[in-house]
Amino acid sequence: MTATDDAPAALAPIAERAAAPATLPAITAGGLSWRAATRDDAPVVCDLLNAVLAADRATYRMTPQEVAESFDSPMRDDATDTLLGLDGDGVPRAFGSIVAPPGDTTLVRTYLEGGVHPERRGEGIGRELLAWQVARARQVLAASGKDAPARIAGFADDHAPESRHRLFARAGFREARFYHDLRRDLTGPDATPVPEVSLDAPLRLVPWSADLDEATRLAHNDAFRDHWGSQPQSREQWAHGRSEFAPQWSFLVVDDAPDVEALLADPHTDAETAAALRAGEPLVVGYEIAGRYDEDFPVQGYTFGYTEILGVRRAYRGRRVAVAALAAGMRAFAADGMRYACLDVDTANPSGAHGLYASLGYEKTTGSRLYAIDL
């Protein structure tokens, strides 16, 4: 059965659809020895992944901090969901992992990550490692107990070697979604001014602050509930993976006098937001969360600020909230001497984000695609 993001009328139990194997396939190609990775492996795994990224002509690199964070992730069990392949000298030559966001409700997702060192490609290691990952992903999905549509997914940059794309295709994945990487000149000779945006009271633009972070999570879950493949983020998920977070470049829009009764009467208002409204908590209605990736500057050949996520609560769309937050981020990038503002966007984003970015001067630089097996 093939599922989409909209659950079919009758859905077999996840344990049945996942078709999880009792044992995982052995990896014999390349003569490597295999074991689970641990946090102590973070530095060598980082080196391995960066060698893979360089060979795949990726425009970004990993930092030791990012990789170390992945070993503290609430989305995987390192003992069962990672695999490190070592050569006869004990040097890591391949790495694979499976992550599963714990907050998923209406779509249960697993993502496959990793790769094979370029010096050891062409030996069949990648094919067998991917088979292990898919099998383990099926086990994770079956064990979730969440009887909703399910997905096994992996990403590949458009400019990655064709062999990487073929690897997914031969393993039964389909091209499910396409993403564009965009940039906007901020400080170059041809840069246009960042627009000044006024918000109608009681909306107010404020810098990101820790005391508003939970309210921002709730805004994000509302903003992205109509986006393909998106699922609510738990508190643990939301707070994880912030080694490159740039709070000085992040901005929020709050409603100082929300119409609480109308929001509570709205059937789309989620339970957590409703509880926060009843408790008189601040209401974040839009946000721009940014990251700083200094290690990518020499790879891309320029400095930039990166908008990780931009979102607006559905009830507040059409009030220039996104433009105000994004423009504030761009001004902060420029004030710190960044040449470009960068971000990525789903080409089929339902909120019209692609058109918004184009109107603000963002242009495509490259892209990526998501490969998926839907269950």
Could you describe the 3D structure shown?
The protein is an alpha+beta fold. The chain has two domains: 159 residues, 3-Layer(aba) Sandwich (Aminopeptidase); 187 residues, Gcn5-related N-acetyltransferase (GNAT) (Aminopeptidase, 3-Layer(aba) Sandwich). A twelve-stranded mixed sheet has the order 1-2-3-4-5-12-6-11-10-9-8-7, sandwiched between helices. A hairpin with a 5-residue loop joins strand 2 and strand 3. Helix 2 crosses helix 3. The radius of gyration is 22 Å and the shape is globular. One of its GO terms (molecular function) is acyltransferase activity, transferring groups other than amino-acyl groups. Keywords: Acyltransferase, Transferase.
Assembly of the depicted chains? single chain
Number of strands: 12
CATH classification, class level of the largest domain: Alpha Beta
Separate helix tally: 13
Using the coordinates shown, work out and report the CATH topology of the largest domain: Aminopeptidase
Organism: Xylanimonas oleitrophica
Domain N-acetyltransferase: 32-195, 225-375
GO molecular function, one term: acyltransferase activity, transferring groups other than amino-acyl groups
InterPro entries: Acyl_CoA_acyltransferase, GNAT_dom, YpeA/RimI_acetyltransf
Keywords:
disordered N terminus, GNAT family N-acetyltransferase, Aminopeptidase, 375 residues, 12 strands, YpeA/RimI_acetyltransf
